[in-house]
Every structure is written in structure tokens, then in C-alpha cells.
Amino acid sequence: MERLQGVVRQGVMIRCSGLGKRYGSRWALRRVEIELSLGECLLVTGPNGAGKTTLLRLLAGLEDPSEGEVSASGTIGFAAPDLALYPNLTACEHLRFAAALRRVEPQESALLERVGLQEHPGKPVGAFSTGMRSRLRLALAIQHQPSVLLLDEPTATLDEQGRQVVRDIIEEQRTRGCIALATNAEGDRGFGDLEVRLSA
């Protein structure tokens, strides 16, 4: 793990030791070591197929490791392009549904404004553009103010205004937790304090 900026480290919020994931006979990840502390942003980089998404899914607890250990402190928010949305529901309905599961306040108006969807509260998500869906996934990921925020290629389908939303969310997240960001976008490199580069 390479440190990109000199920051004072506080309590560790994510720790991986000897982490690996195997699908059949193929290893997607081997021997990953991570320590991520309050206020830090980790960049997970590497070519397609290197295991960036797999690593985030392991950190989120959506998959079990084949070897090693992973731990994360507090609550987790996760946004990724493959996370399913319901095409017949509106953005507000998604937020209300997620809030009920999490037992938190929906905060629909504030969250939609936060990600730039305030003009589309009643529009079915099936009619959303790819970028609008990415914004909704961001809103869902931060709704419960998680201590650990995991973002998979968050700027890939966004315009400059949307990329600024991501930048602002990352800076806000630093005040309450940490961030792991899987990306190959050159413009995202400025977010990171540390980097794990995976190889295919």
C-alpha cells in the first residue's frame, strides 16, 4: 500500500490482512494488506479484471474472503454501478424504502438536492439516465451517514457537475469516517491519501 500524502493517522477503521478471494481455481485477489484510518481516502486502482470491485465487495461484507481477514468499524455505505435499482420506483420511493430498512429518517428532499436530483423526485428510475442512476446510488450510500464509504467507479458516468458532487461527498465523509474508492479515472487521483494498485 502506497501513501500518497502525509497525514496524521488516527484510529484504524478498515483493516485487511492477507486478504484473498478465489473463484473456482482462479484467484481474483491475493495477499492484500490495508489499514485505513479516520479521515483517509484509499484509491484502489488497476486494470479491468484486477479485482477492484471484488475488493470493495469484500470490504462491504457482500462476499466472504477465501483467505485472510477483513474488518470494518461502524456502518458501511456502498455505491457501485451493478447495485440494482427498481425501475418502477421513483428516487423518493427508493430513499423511503432504504430508510425503513435502516430505521433512519428518509431525508428525501435534502439527499436529492445533495446529489442534484431535486428536479426529479417523482420520475421513475427506469426513465433515468445512467448518470442520474449513479447520483441516486450515491444518495442511498450516504443516507445513513456511514462511517465507511465504499465507492466503485463513482465518476465514470457523471458530467463535471456530478464529479463535483462526488468530490464534495468525499470531503464531507472525511469528517466522520473513511473512504475506499475504486477507480481508473485520472481525475480521481487527487482524492487519495493511499493507493492499492492491483494487477490482473
**Under the CATH scheme, which class?**
Alpha Beta
> Level of helix content?
25-40%
Question: Looking across the biggest beta sheet, what order are the strands in?
Answer: 1-9-4-8-7-6
**What class, by secondary structure content?**
alpha/beta
Give the oligomer, counting copies of the same chain as homo and different chains as hetero.
single chain
Blueprint of the fold:
Elements: E1 2-3, E2 12-23, E3 26-37, E4 41-45, H1 52-60, E5 67-72, E6 76-79, H2 91-102, H3 108-114, H4 130-142, E7 148-152, H5 160-174, E8 178-182, E9 194-197
Parallel strand pairs: 4-8, 4-9, 6-7, 7-8
Antiparallel strand pairs: 1-9, 2-3, 2-5
Word description of this protein:
- The chain is about 30% helix and about 30% strand.
- By secondary structure, it is α/β, with parallel strands linked by helices.
- The chain has a single domain (about 40-65, about 75-195), classed as P-loop containing nucleotide triphosphate hydrolases (Rossmann fold).
- The strands form two sheets. Strands 1-9-4-8-7-6 form a six-stranded mixed sheet, sandwiched between helices. Strands 3-2-5 form a three-stranded antiparallel sheet, with helices on one face.
- It is globular and about 45 Å long.
- The two termini are about 15 Å apart.
- The model is unreliable at about 1-10 (pLDDT under 50).
